[in-house]
Amino acid sequence: MHELSICRSIADIVARHAGEGRVSTIHVRVGQLRQIVPDTLSYCWSLVSAGTPLDGSTLAVDSVPARLSCQACGAASDIGRHPAFACQACQSTDVRVVAGEEFLITSLDLAEV
Description:
alpha+beta, single chain, hypothetical protein PF0899 fold, 3-stranded mixed β-sheet, 3-stranded antiparallel β-sheet, elongated
């Protein structure tokens, strides 16, 4: 379960950037190709944050679908649930991933004091 180690890294980053502020929500963008299960990530966050200054905060996960751009015909398309790295328009395999590999913390919501 690599989501647990990812949550530990998120906690370290958030603690450095939040300073003395109490964090209520951490907004995270996760691409489909990152092989991270959002529900597992949220569960692991509750384990990692328990008993820390981040206790009670939540992860808001924005899932980013994987998107391909065809180098042969110029079409762009999402790959869907069952990744096939071929253009849906012309079936060429000369494609480039243009979205879906993201993993980043986009913002923090601080709690009212």
